[in-house]
Every structure is written in structure tokens, then in C-alpha cells.
Amino acid sequence: MTARMDITLTVNGERVTRSVEPRRHLIDFLRTDLGLTGSHAGCEHGVCGACTVRVDGEIVRGCLVLAASLDGAEVTTIEGLTDSGEVADLQAAFVARNAAQCGFCTPGMVMAAADILRHHADADRGAIREHLSGNYCRCTGYQAIVDAVEQTLAARKEAAR
To answer: Can you tell me the distance from the alpha carbon of 76 to that of 86, in angstroms, rounded to the nearest whole number?
Structure first.
């Protein structure tokens, strides 16, 4: 028999309470228990970034965080980010630049790029590349992704004038 723990967290603005095994990773909790399959399980070692989500406003690797450790936390997945409209312009830039080829890395890339938009509005191409360097993409060569982030930053600066 496996011990379980009751946890309550806010996921994409909705309060949820579930009983979880203490060893269950956040990405598995989100995908299996809550049916939020936008974030992907890739390497399961925190290297590829496919499982990137926000916890209490900071991006984390969902495969490295235990769900049981997040009792009371606020979690935002790619579904929540999309539903809020926070990154509609970024997503449009990804489409325009063909920055989402196979799509497997895209949710994690968008989460990391959204973090740049929130915290590093003056990022240059080098800073964008550095920030995204923890997210692997095997299709695009990153150029189109960096272009999309740079385009979104520039458009937001222009709109703020």
C-alpha cells in the first residue's frame, strides 16, 4: 500500500484538491490527474524543458518538482497562459515565424519565452538565447524561436510608447 497525501493548489486559476503519492512529479500530476496535457514529459531529468510550468510566478521543470511539495502553491500551465491571453502576441509570432515545427518543445519554449517577456523586457538576442538555452528544440535550430521572442519584445515596446 502506498501512502497518499492530500494537496490543494490553484492550477490555472482553479482551486483543486487531490490525493497524491508523495513521489508523484508535478508533470505527471498535471497530465494524468488533471488532464492538462499541454506541458510535455520529455527527458524526465530537467534537461529538455518540455515540462516547463510556472509555480508561484517562477518557471520550473515539472519533472523535477514533487506535486506533494506544492500544497498551497499557484501553478500555471501552457493552457492557463493561453487561456489568459497573456501570450497571444507571442503565439502569433511563433506561427508567423514558423517557430513551432513539430510542436513538442513549443509549450516549454512559450513558457520560457513568457518569462523573458515578464522579467526581461530589454533582452537582446544574446539574452534571449541564453534564457531559452535550457529548452531543447530538435526541429527549428532556434533561429525562428529567437526571432519570434525578439519580435514580440519589440512590438510590446512600441505599443507601450
So the answer is: 12
Task: Report H helices in the chain.
Answer: 26-28, 78-84, 88-96, 106-119, 125-132, 143-160
Q: How far apart are CA 24 and CA 22, in angstroms?
A: 6
CA distance 50 to 16: 23
Q: Which of 42, 106, 100 is nearest to 78 (CA)?
A: 106
Query: Cβ distance 104 to 39 under 8 Å?
Result: no
Side-chain-side CA neighbours of 142 within 13 Å: the count stands at: 13
Closest CA to 59 of 70, 71, 75: 75
1 pLDDT tier (thresholds 50, 70, 90): low
Q: What is the DSSP string of 9-22?
A: EEETTEEEEEEE-T
Query: How far is C-alpha 105 from the chain's CA centre?
Result: 10
Distance set, CA 98 to CA 124, 136, 154 (Å) = 20, 16, 18
What's the whole-model pTM score?
Answer: 0.93
Q: Supply 68's cell numbers.
A: 506533494
